[in-house]
Amino acid sequence: MMLKSLLSRFRRSEFGGTTVEFMIVMPLIVFWFGGTFTFFQSYSEWTRSVKATYTVADILSRQLEVDDAYIEDMNTLYASIMGESTNDTWLRVSSIEMTEDGLNLDWSNATGLHFGLNGNSEIPTELIPNLIEGETVILVESHVPMIPFQNYIGIDSQTLQKKVAVSPRFNSKLAWNN
Question: How do residues 68-91 score in pLDDT, each as one tens digit?
Answer without folding.
Answer: 999 999 999 999 999 988 889 999
